[in-house]
Design a protein that fits this description.
Mean pLDDT: 94
Strand content: under 5%
Distance between the termini: 52 Å
Number of strands: 2
Largest sheet: 2 strands, antiparallel
Helix content: 55-70%
Number of helices: 15
Strand order of the largest sheet: 1-2
Oligomer: single chain
């Protein structure tokens, strides 16, 4: 494999042009490549390529490629904002359930006896408690609320401590809870059993990290699938060999998760914002239809109906 070497902005434009991309405004294209990075922008080329080729569809412009890049940025911001809402809600519910049942000091809520005591969980519990104590110790003095409790009370109650704990670690914590505690936490959401909720937390954490690092979102697929839901059935999502083709491990699966864990008003607002960005992208695309992008997102044709489904 040939080594990758440094290319000037003009050389990068020459490469894109040689692959059939139409560049109408060179000064604007140069500025965009300098600010946004050729490598990252080029990551959005796939929908615009001729099938089985590395060449762009005839007439495809740099502006169309950049429009998909911008769409994904705004879409990612919408998703990130709402995943952060879910993170805060979950941390609040988690701390409420455990503090009420086990106490509000670290020695109480971090007692190993509060968790699933099955043999196969023992090592995981000990490891997670160590990670928890380490995050609280390291991050506690960096946040005003937690440092206030440390300096004035000598401990951090769980409902404050969750502020300095990562979403990933909080998801792992859920996996080691006793079944009755998992059930109670899941019961505060819309029609989710505790097993599915644990899976949702893992997927949400994956997307949170992806959004935080500004990776490509619109066509991202997770290794984990979600189970079939009533939403798949109500939307009459097509199946192949008994498996739904949308909403299993694609972006629409994330939308289904958010439907379950956001409030009705928050979800409706999110979908309105997404619809606006999709309409904007559609107005910018000429060589392909926006449906090609929606297909890669896993959005069925009737995806808008999800806003009106009553769980």
């Amino acid at each position: 494999m040939a080594a990758k070497v440094f290319r000037t902005i003009d050389e990068q434009l020459d490469i894109l042009k040689a692959k059939g991309l139409v560049i109408e405004d060179y000064d604007r294209a140069r500025d965009i490549l300098l600010r946004e990075n050729y490598f990252f922008l080029n990551g959005y080329r796939s929908p615009f390529l001729i099938t089985g080729s590395k060449r762009f569809i005839d007439g495809c412009t740099f502006e169309e490629l950049y429009s998909l890049f911008i769409f994904d940025r705004f879409f990612r911001n919408i998703i990130f904002k709402n995943v952060l809402i879910v993170e805060n809600n979950y941390k609040s519910i988690f701390s409420y359930v455990l503090s009420r049942k086990y106490g509000y000091k670290e020695k109480d809520y971090l007692n190993v006896n509060n968790f699933d005591r099955s043999k196969e969980k023992a090592r995981q519990i000990n490891d997670l408690i160590r990670k928890l104590k380490r995050q609280i110790r390291i991050n506690g003095y960096q946040h005003s609320a937690t440092s206030h409790y440390i300096n004035n009370y000598g401990y951090i109650p769980l409902w404050v401590g969750v502020k300095v704990l990562s979403f990933g670690l909080m998801g792992e914590l859920y996996s080691i809870l006793k079944e009755e505690d998992k059930d109670e936490i899941a019961s505060y959401y819309k029609n989710i059993d505790s097993e599915d909720f644990g899976n949702y937390l893992s997927i949400l954490s994956n997307y949170r990290n992806l959004c935080a690092h500004e990776d490509i979102l619109y066509n991202h697929e997770t290794q984990k699938c979600i189970n079939d839901t009533s939403i798949h059935q109500i939307l009459d999502i097509p199946q192949v060999d008994g498996e739904y083709i949308y909403g299993k491990h694609d972006i629409f699966a994330l939308i289904i998760i958010l439907k379950h864990v956001l409030t009705y008003s928050d979800f409706k607002m999110m979908m309105n914002e997404i619809d606006y960005e999709i309409d904007w992208l559609s107005s910018k695309l000429k060589c392909i239809d926006v449906s090609k992008v929606l297909y890669r997102m896993g959005f069925p044709d009737n995806y808008k109906q999800i806003s009106y489904i009553d769980l």
